[in-house]
Design goal:
The complex is a heterodimer.
Chain A: H1 3-23, H2 26-51, H3 59-75, H4 80-102, H5 107-125, E1 144-145, E2 148-149, H6 153-175, H7 178-188, H8 190-195, H9 200-226, H10 236-249, H11 254-275, H12 284-303, H13 307-327, H14 347-354
Antiparallel strand pairs in A: 1-2
Chain B: H1 2-32, H2 39-55, H3 62-83, H4 90-112, E1 125-128, E2 131-134, H5 135-157, H6 159-169, H7 171-176, H8 181-203, H9 214-227, H10 233-253, H11 258-286
Antiparallel strand pairs in B: 1-2
Helix pairs in contact in B: 1-5, 1-6, 1-8, 1-9, 1-10, 2-3, 2-4, 2-8, 2-9, 3-4, 3-8, 5-6, 5-8, 6-8, 9-10, 9-11, 10-11
Chain lengths: 358, 287
């Protein structure tokens, strides 16, 4: 992706986000806030899975970690802005500490270890008295920034939109710089990357901590938005939802993470609206949401390994190639998937490198 | 003393259940290199099915057998989705089994609702050294031992068992010998489903299960499988018993909510030690 199309993506996202936050009704804004926060976490999960080649079934724990860090600090007299600021750092610190031993593990061992991490974190916060135990943490004050207290849902919509944009900008910049190339190298072969001078262990840990800090930031906003936290707000299913969204959008692609989380979130939300209509059994919403998440996950992994963004890129490349062929009147010099200036490699190749679960 | 004895008996029964789940994970892993995240779900399906079949008046034994059969069928279906498509790598299959497990949540809630269910196992209890031991606890251990003996015989004596072992050690060579690797993978998933089912029907009378009980069943089963080095099902029996007794003691003498955290930490520690020992080997394998 060239610099121009990258900043175009960000500007488009910012415009859409701000417009939606300004124009939506109050009732829709609640969905908007949660959607933006979910997308913020998913960007990190997608980068981690797509570029560092790690499956994390525990990102919900980092989300919870940020939320509790913000909540505990601000209920104990800290200024709320400091609570929000500490959320990503707390999550990144936890990720660094547990990441040093855990990232020795690979594949299914790492998947299990991150799942275990989530479960241990849940039992920890339901035992500690400082986090309020099973009852939860109540009375978190509203966020105050520079003397303004954010009370309306709309102000939290702007805040969550800002968090998402911040995360997208950071992610885009990292991917297009030296660390991004190093990560791409190590996701296809750690041995080859290490022998080309990439500090594999360092980059994996840094990526793990960075994606945790994205989740922590989203968690911090969530804490002030809800004003109440309990272990029940962070079920294991939450960690899995992020993976579904990242896989549907296309692993390793920032735009894919945002698109995937928006589509999946809105689909599940829309269906649960239908399911809560009168005449439906009380269990209908959970049945539908489980079924949708499961079907999307399985079909994305099996049939769409590069996600919706990969599909779109392939279609666009095909259209361009056809147009070019027509332009040069059936010239044979052009291969159908020729690498253009903003298409560094054929999409299939990209997909097989860091779009799949290898 | 009597408290210790009752914790021990409870722990052994619990450990047998973990071992059954673990042996299913190991068998599937050996043949397909896939860690089946839906393994706990098989036990839940069997437990729920047995409860429903008993409700409609089927006698014991028959109801449980049908439930185990249902779990085996679900196992084969899971396998078909997870490894049936050509060129699916184990990590993608791992995520697919996760998806299948969640899909079954929807299915289970649809059929059985979201409340915990149970059914009555063997009624009555015996008395040992002043401890009342429900008969169901005493049923769990012998059945588990029988199942493990049958498994050993299956892998040592039958053609299908040997063919599965061949696929486990080298799928390419096995295919050259005319063994259908996909078929053996599906057998593996079916057998794993049945083993999960046995765990489900044995444990449900002891603890009511709900649709999301599969997380703790999987976590403990995988822990036992890791203790066994993911190699031989029989070793999982030792791993499961160790884990079950340790958890039961922690729950008895300390706090019940610590038991699963302890099992998880123990498993993580073992995983890390194993990984550090084999790190260079893995790196070579992967390239």
């Amino acid at each position: 992706m060239s610099f121009d199309s990258r900043s175009a993506t960000i500007v488009a996202l910012a415009a859409a986000g701000v417009l939606a936050a300004a124009l939506l009704e109050e009732s829709a804004l609640a969905v908007y806030v949660l959607l933006a926060l979910t997308a913020t976490v998913t960007v990190g999960v997608s980068l981690l899975m797509g570029h560092a080649g790690q499956v994390s079934l525990g990102h919900g724990a980092f989300y919870a970690c940020g939320a509790y860090a913000a909540g505990v600090l601000s209920t104990h007299g800290c200024p709320t802005w400091l609570g929000l600021l500490s959320a990503p750092f707390a999550a990144a610190a936890v990720a660094t500490i547990v990441g040093v031993p855990l990232l020795i593990l690979r594949g299914h061992h790492l998947a299990f270890a991150t799942l275990a991490l989530h479960l241990i974190f849940l039992s920890l916060i339901s035992e500690l008295s400082i986090t309020g135990g099973d009852v939860g943490l109540q009375g978190i004050p509203r966020l105050s920034l520079a003397g303004i207290t954010l009370t309306s849902v709309r102000s939290y919509a702007y805040l969550s939109c800002t968090a998402l944009l911040l995360v997208v900008v950071v992610a885009q910049n990292i991917l297009s710089s030296r660390p991004g190339r190093a990560l791409r190298a190590l996701s296809s072969s750690e041995v080859a990357a290490a022998s080309s001078g990439v500090a594999v262990g360092y980059y994996k840990l840094a990526m793990f901590a960075l994606s945790a800090s994205f989740a922590g930031l989203a968690g911090g906003v969530y804490a002030f938005y809800m004003g109440y936290l309990s272990p029940g707000s962070f079920p294991v299913m939450l960690s899995i939802e992020y993976i579904v969204m990242a896989a549907v959008g296309g692993l390793g692609k920032v735009s894919g993470a945002v698109l995937g989380s928006a589509l999946v979130f809105l689909l599940v939300h829309g269906l649960s609206r239908v399911a809560t209509a009168s005449g439906m059994p009380s269990t209908a919403p959970i049945i539908l949401s489980y079924a949708v998440y499961a079907l999307l996950l399985v079909s994305a992994v099996l049939f769409l390994p590069s996600g919706l963004v990969g599909l779109a890129a392939r279609a666009a490349a095909r259209v361009r190639a056809r147009a070019r062929a027509r332009h040069s009147n059936g010239g044979q010099a052009e291969t159908p998937l020729a690498a253009g200036p903003d298409q560094p490699a054929a999409p299939e190749q990209v997909a097989s490198k860091h779009g799949s679960f290898s | 003393m009597s408290a210790f004895l009752s914790y021990l008996i409870h722990g052994i029964s619990l450990g047998c259940g973990f071992a059954l789940v673990a042996s299913g994970i190991i068998i599937i892993y050996r043949v397909t290199r896939v860690v089946n995240l839906a393994q706990g779900m098989f036990a839940v399906v069997a437990g729920f099915s047995a409860a429903s079949l008993l409700d409609i008046g089927l006698p014991h034994v028959l109801a449980e057998s049908v439930a185990i059969g249902a779990a085996a069928a679900v196992g084969v279906l899971t396998g078909y989705v997870a490894v049936g498509k050509r060129g699916t790598n184990p990590q993608a299959s791992l995520i697919v089994t996760l998806g299948v497990g969640i899909f079954c949540y929807a299915f289970e809630v649809l059929i059985w609702g979201d409340q915990p269910r149970s059914f009555a196992g063997l009624a009555g209890s015996y008395e040992f050294f002043g401890v009342d031991v429900p008969k169901q606890y005493l049923l769990v251990t012998p059945i588990t031992v029988l199942v493990f003996v049958a498994l050993e015989l299956f892998f040592e004596r039958t053609y299908a068992g040997k063919a599965m072992t061949a696929c486990a050690s080298n799928p390419y060579a096995a295919a050259l010998q005319g063994i259908g690797v996909l078929r053996m993978s599906l057998y593996g998933f079916g057998l794993g489903g049945a083993l999960g089912g046995v765990a489900g029907v044995l444990l449900t009378p002891l603890h009511p299960i709900s649709y999301d009980s599969d997380v703790s069943l999987f976590v403990n089963g995988f822990a036992a499988a890791i203790l066994a080095g993911l190699k031989r099902p029989v070793l999982a029996l030792a791993g499961g018993l160790l884990l079950g007794v340790a958890e039961s003691m922690v729950a008895g003498y300390s706090k019940a909510s610590y038991q699963s955290a302890l099992a998880l930490l123990l498993t993580l520690a073992i995983l890390l030690v194993q990984a550090m020992r084999r790190e260079t080997l893995h790196a070579v394998e992967e390239s």
